[in-house]
Amino acid sequence: MENNNVNKLIKSLVVLALLIVVLVGVTFAYFVMVNNDIGDVGGRTVDSLPIQITGQDRIQITNLIPILSEDVNAYAERVNFNVLSTNPAHPITYTISLIEINITPNLISSDFRWTLVGGDSNNVIASGTFDGITPPRMQILDNLRVDANMVTSHNYSFRVWIETDGETPQNDMMNGQFSARLAITANMVYEN
After folding, report:
1. CATH code at 151?
2. C-alpha span between 177 and 60 (Å, rounded)
3. Could you give the maximum distance between any two Cα atoms of the chain, in Å?
4. Cα-flanking dihedrals φ and ψ of residue 37, to 5°?
5. Tally of domains in the chain
6. Residue 49, Cβ neighbours under 10 Å: how many?
7. Is residue 157 domain-resident?
8. Which of helix, strand or coil describes residue 87?
């Protein structure tokens, strides 16, 4: 009889220990899930957050031809992608970056430019040059907010080009090479 009680006590302790391990594991997994996650553009999803990213994720160019500023919309090299928020329970912010950047030294110049254009119009959200870039990563847009309980879709076009004024020769830049991949970092917003 005493042996039977000891066996029941041991089984109860084992079951209790397993429940504690499962509870700690689930709590940890939830904490990791709601804090942040990283996803890449290209039809993949930021797994733990309700954001879906679709479209192209890589830009790779060689032998750019310099263009005038008024011709950027028509002739700049571009990557189009979409960030879709599917009804998050909490507000989310996301950051768009270039990663895995490979750039030849002749393109590290204020004449090699980029813009992030939003929507179907030519609404420039962010812009800059590649002068002083330190690969392999560059942030493009920081902390764009998506409110809770909303379905939103943001269309973007990332454009790069060599800008010319029509007078300054830029032949040395024309044989340059540039490649990079777009990445999204998403974070849950905690509010009181």
Report:
1. 2.60.120
2. 8
3. 101
4. -165, 160
5. 1
6. 26
7. yes
8. coil
What residue ranges in 5-150 does DSSP mark as E strands?
A: 36-40, 45-46, 51-55, 58-62, 77-86, 92-103, 112-118, 123-129, 138-146
Whether 19 is in a domain gets the answer: no
- Tens digits of per-residue pLDDT, 146-163? 776 667 778 888 999 999
The answer to whether 164 touches 111, Cβ cutoff 8 Å, is: yes
Mean pLDDT across 35-49 = 43
Q: Locate 148 and state its tokens.
A: 């809770």
pTM above 0.70, yes or no: no
Residue 64 DSSP one-character state: -
User: What percent of the chain has a predicted confidence (pLDDT) above 70?
Assistant: 78
Which amino acid appears at position 6 of this protein?
V
Within 8 A by CB and 6+ apart from 139, the residues are 95, 96, 97
Which runs of consecutive H residues, i.e. helices, occur in the chain? 2-35, 72-75
Residue closest to 114 by CA, chosen among 133, 134, 136, 129 = 129
Q: Supply 113's token pair.
A: 């430019």
